Amino acid sequence: MADRVINVLLAGTGGQGIVLASRIIAHCALKSGFDVKESEIHGMAQRGGSVIGQVRFGGKVYSPSIPTGEADIMLALEEMEALRYLHYLKPEGIVILNEKQIVPPALDVNQYPQNVLSRIKEKGHKAIPLKAQDVAQKLGSSKVENSVLLGVLSLFLPFEEEIWRETITQSVPGKTVDLNIRAFEEGRVLGEKLLQSQS
User: Fold this and answer.
1) What residue numbers bound the domain in which 185 lies?
2) Tally of structural domains, the chain
3) Is residue 142 part of a domain?
4) Within a domain: 1
5) When you count CB atoms within 10 A of the terminal residue's CB, does the N or C end of the chain come out lower?
6) Alpha-carbon torsion, ordered 12, 86, 88, 49, to 10 deg
7) CB 35 within 8 A of CB 73
8) Residue 132 lies in a domain
9) CA 90 distance to own-chain centroid
10) Residue 116 lies in a domain
């Protein structure tokens, strides 16, 4: 795995913590000895606009941009954004899907795409659906949804669990470290259960 480039795409909306999550993944890759390239693209600067993060790591990475059809895994923080960027995924690619709908101000609620999970599976991709918001709220703050999702993602990437913990600790505000670490751990546990239920 060290020689081949692994492509991770994050998709969501402004205010969901995509940029922070992308940087945590990139720093984990660096600390694990990989060459890393990372980029973020903001569709609109305000909250609610489309945002994607791209992290590529391996033996040698030449470009920060994931070619269409080359992403190994998508971490989708919002359902419509998962559909919007699905063309980036490899045919055998995995989608970690946060079952959350954020209707853009310009879109009528009746225009929001339905059956997103089914549509992802119809394309042949493996989908792992979860409600990260429920986990985060049980911990006391909806703001740690992205750490819950990183916990699930961590099961698919070749970084030691301790490197994840160390990187999260260094990346989030000091007073939220314990909460974010707990969210990450809960995400790992939930991810393991979901994978067992699918096997």
Assistant:
1) 6-198
2) 1
3) yes
4) no
5) C
6) -30
7) no
8) yes
9) 16
10) yes
The rounded distance, in Å, linking the Cα atoms of 195 and 114 is: 24
Residues 6+ apart with CB under 8 A from 140: 179
Could you list the pLDDT tens digit for every one of the 199 residues in the chain?
457 999 999 999 988 999 999 999 999 999 999 999 999 776 654 556 889 999 999 999 999 999 999 999 999 999 999 999 999 999 999 999 999 998 887 777 788 888 999 999 999 999 999 999 999 999 999 999 999 999 999 999 999 999 999 999 999 999 999 999 999 999 999 999 999 998 7
Predicted model pTM: 0.93
H and E: helices and strands count for the chain: 7, 6
Q: What is the CATH number of the domain that holds 35?
A: 3.40.920.10
Phi, psi at 151, each rounded to 5°? -60, -45
Closest residue by Cα to residue 176 from 132, 146, 133: 146
